[in-house]
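#lab-general

N.A. 3:47 PM
ok so I finally got the sequence cleaned up, no stray characters, all 613 residues accounted for. can someone with queue access submit it? mine expired

B.Y. 3:52 PM
send it over

N.A. 3:53 PM
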Amino acid sequence: MAKKIDLKDIVQDAFDASIQQISGSDAAFLYAESPTSPMHVATLNIVEGSLKYDDFKAIVASKLHLIPKFRQRLLNVPMNLDYPYWVDDPNFDLDLHLNRIKLPDPSNWRTLRDLTSKLFSAPLDLRRPLWSVHFIEGIDEIAQVPKGSVAIVTKVHHVMIDGSSGVGLLGVLYDSDESGKDKKRSKPKPFNPEPLPDELSLLLKSGYGFLKNPFKIPRTVGETVFNFVKSKAASKLSIQKEFSSTKFPVPITIFNGSISAKRTWGTAILSFERINLLRKTMGGSINDMILAICAGAIRRYLAENEKLPLHPLVANVPISIRNENSKEMNNQIANMMIQLATHIDDPLERLEYIQEQTMLGKSRHNTMGAKTLAKMADVVPFGLANLAAGLYSKYNIKDLHRPPFNVTITNVPGPRGLLYLNGHKVVSIFGLTPVVDGFGLIIAAFSYNGQVSITTTSDAKTMPDADVFSRYIRESANELEDLIKNLGKSKSSSKAATKVKSKSAPFFTALKRYLKTNQKDLKTYKGIYQIEVGLGDTTNGWEIDLTKDQATVKKKKNVDAKLLVEIEDENLFALYKGKLLLEELKIQGRIKITGTAASKAKFIKLLIAFLER
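B.Y. 4:20 PM
back already:
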């Protein structure tokens, strides 16, 4: 007897708010999946000591309820008329996602790298929750890693996670202190999956979403056109016209062809403190230094393969636009394009060129454009993104035009302190990222416990010798360091008797006047704020005290301030003159604000009010 259709249940499922649809930007990662391009990210974590598999499994089981998507799968709308929905997997079984293997002999770094490449090359099963973990035992012959340590390879599909939310995931699975072994683990919470929605209810839900907001597409397109016209006008009136599309050619390189299914990867581990010292000497940001180091390695690799183009390579640099208070585990990223100055032989000149590029790359219209593109991804007509991604790969559209960029370089700040797993120290963390046809090289920098791992992911056709390229990254960093150190010595000897004059002093003078004439607003911004202004080898400390009846702004280094702002002198001056926006500096990492959430909010509110006076 045929099952009776209950229209009441179908309508109730259609209006169930707990069934979440994936966003347009997340769907792009799903539709880009192909036999040669599985769209998952991965981490390789090396954990010292003999961590037992049963203990590891118990930890994962006890924390699964904290990551709901790890027990959910995607459910497609009939005929793929809309983006899929996240639903509870009624057949979820932890054993299908955890794999225990032993590292083959010789159990050294090369064997581990080859095994990780093989694991990373295999796609995830799109019919199940989109993650897997391989617990690799028997690491005995890797320098500086205790014998008997383990490696943990975690794969998660990009549709459910980006780099920044991935860092949040580390905080769920790992401990911040070594007492975890003594902690009493909570028992796994029972999983009671919601029943799968009916296909008809999914169609109703998708149709209702469109009917509820039928003007979403034209409104977003209208905003896009307005911002496009505005950005074009701005480019004609500013220095950005020097970097317009006619003067910004993207060369075709060996990184921009078809890729193979087999992944290759290598990594270089650098000291964060060493990179930061170079940044302090040269100005700019940590990201500028990483881009310059990678650019040096790319130039050498292409030159030695006799494939170095005349025009500089262009890097796609993803930027997290995630709100620091956001707890959602989804993709919140924008992009900027940076010329890597691979046409310049001198490393210092190359760095200066890149610094200028990053400053211009985060211009006002580019930032607005990134946000508008993020909106556009959510309103692409049903099925269009899927069709476009499939056609691009199937018909080799990449061969019909120049690529929009040559390489992706991403920098994700990770945990500053050590992480532990059941009392065992996490020695290193490496991030592997997906590559696709036309874009066969991606470099991911990840900072952890004073180290920066710069990991290169490619494929066997594009870069079979990724380990050689990683050596070039280390040597590029050493070369840049030597040149900057010598530059610093010559600067200090020639300017030993010269006191560096601050450009941003007028900022504090004007701020003092502003606070004096706006006494009634002091309670709103109450607090003590310390601003450290970088002046090359030295810093100026300024204290803003708004705790008394009369505000004071004076030169002083206050180590007990509730809020600390670190910014280079030239950047603060540009902010004061309106040449740079506060939001630009925050995204670029050119201003660092440390303190409680409340003190940050008050200071930013004060700064915005002052700048908009």
